[in-house]
Request: fold
Amino acid sequence: MKRVLAVLGIQAFVFHSNFLKNEKKHVRLNEEELQKIEDALEKQTSAEDAETLATLQANETATQEALSAAFELHGLKTVEGQTVAEAVEALSAKCTEYGESKNQHSFHKTDGKDKQEDEEVENSADYAHNQVFNEDKFKTLK
Reply:
């Protein structure tokens, strides 16, 4: 009630009651006092609406910038008049495409066995580590 008192520029309300004991007390306001309250509420609402609108616009701008960056990163093109929901759907479809892709070029699959060619070379008598040390060959190299 302090705010209403401040808007009306008065110190206290004068409460009235009827003759019946069960009836609640009430305050009587004239048209001028009601208009003051209405104007104060409208100013407050306008300020809150402006703040809310500014916050919404800032959020929308941030969302659009994030979506544009994501589209650019993934090579997608934005469409004029595209809604946020449509943009998110397009990104979702791209994520699904990536998830279903079998192209895993950076991951090498292995079954734990070496290739047959490598085994043949390593087991070959010509392979360097399979050579028997020959002192005669060593002496001629000196």
